[in-house]
Amino acid sequence: MRGIRPFLRDAWRLAKPYYTSDERWSAWGLLIAILALRLLLVGMTVVLSFWNREFFNSLQNKDFAAFFELLFVYRRTPSGFMPGFCEIAAVYILVAVYFTYLSQWLQIRWRRWLTVRLLGEWLADRAYYRISLTTDRAAIGTDNPDQRIAEDIRDYVDNTLTLGISLLANIVTLVSFLGILWSLSGTIELFGIPVPGYMVWVALLYAIVGTWLTHLVGRPLAALRFRQQRVEADFRYSLVRVRENMEGIALYSGEAEEKGFLDHRFGAVIGNWWAIMQRTKLLNALTAGYEQVAVVFPFIVAAPRFFSGEIPLGGLTQTAGAFGRVQDALSWFISRYPDLAQWHAIVERLTTFHRAVVAARAAFGTGLTVADAGERSVAMRDATIELPNGMKLLENTDLVLEPGESVVISGRSGSGKSTLFRALAGIWPFGHGRVQRPVERCLFLPQRPYIPLGTLRHVVTYPYPATAFSREEVAQALEDAGLGQFVSRLDHDEHWAQQLSGGEQQRLALARALLIKPDWLFLDEATASLDPEAESELYRTLKAKLPDTTLVSIAHRPSVAAFHEKHLVLERADGRPGHFVQAELAAANGGGR
């Protein structure tokens, strides 16, 4: 566990932006209202302390009139006016209801703002993509971003408000009841020395010993909670992967392998949970014993004054109640230790994730820079493209693609064709150099198309809204791409990634190109799942429907070369940087990916 000051500093850095944002007035207004209601609840416990004294005194004195009035009527007592229990309870219920309501209101507003902010930062400057390329993601705090955004933010907001308000309320409770307990304790002599307010000192000593023992026993819980969140998310992610790849697993008959892997992931969940159980058992044994002793401890300490007649029964119960309140306030750390351990883990996870996102955004543009130079051509100047491990795929390379001259690029498997595709798109962060292209008029289609959630119409028009194109335009694009059978289902919201085969998904991606009509269309084996005849048919459709579009294809089939005017081969051997060689179209034999 890190030091308390760095941890609190991180917790404050997560909270501060919301309370200084454009929502700061509503945020502070709700927070102040919540604090006021919580302090009002503390004040009512003070009132109940005095009511409790009068009530038990009425029982001791067998005073039925006072007993009845204390239950129902606002009355005058020797110590002043005292509301009846029903009146106190009615106000208490009203305050408690609105305290919870306003707390939940602030929680959802804060969570919404923080989620939108972190989502925006994660998606901005392709930070999500850059950190996904890092090999040791768990070490830098970027594992399972879905959990960190969806669950950790929710729990951070909830725990921060709950613990913060609880701490403040306990401080006020301590101050409120400290004076009461001091006045009720009287003075005793210890070794001939008078000790005023002795029960205050007893409560303080009791809480100090309990806090020290609790921290000693419960300290490892924070690290265990941190790890539990990670292994739970890893297991959940593995289940999602099975759901997303059901057909492939079924075709390979890989159920046994998948079960073994899932058992291994779930074993990590169980193993860490057992460690939490063992540590929690020790902590609960300590805290339960501490709390049980605290029930009778004040009566034992105050009993001599009661039996000697110094205080009546009501005074005894008020003394015990005040002692309990002071002891509870001083023992806040003990009772909240598991929550504090979980909060510590959540703050650590959010902080490390946010730092990774900030670092990824700060590094944006350190790879190949993409600029819209106002030229129609696509040029790569003095480009060095590397793998994340530093291996160079290309070094100080120039490449110029002219508009109207379609190019097919081939090469052996592992030569770096797909990485070149990503570099031209401007998403590959490893390397340096410049890419000049008409940024707004280029469309890149990878081998595995992205199929978003939503209606089929939205899937086809992605990344544009479904309303960006008319229904007739979308239907025509599907017809041209050979997906006419799906036109009647344009408004169906289904899991299209599972509904469509690999070939149909590639046809759908080409339907996007037919709809968007870019000036440049880059295809990274975007028809590899189709048979040669269907592939040729689609390339003829692209040529016919997009006569002003320049095609740049990464492909391995010789038939693809027939639809291009230029053929480049990316040659690379023995781990050395590669280079481009122009080949004759008639001799184009492609190559493996």
Unreliable segments (pLDDT under 50, ≥5 consecutive)?
586-593
- Biggest sheet, spatial arrangement of strands: 10-11-12-8-13-14
Gyration radius over CA: 35 Å
The CATH class designation of the largest domain is Mainly Alpha
The share of residues in extended strands comes to: 5-15%
| CATH superfamily caption of the largest domain | ABC transporter type 1, transmembrane domain
CATH fold name of the largest domain, please?
ABC transporter transmembrane region fold
Mean pLDDT rating: 81
* Count of folded domains: 2
Sheet of most strands:
6 strands, mixed
- Please, how many helices? 21
Overall shape: it is elongated
Number of strands: 14
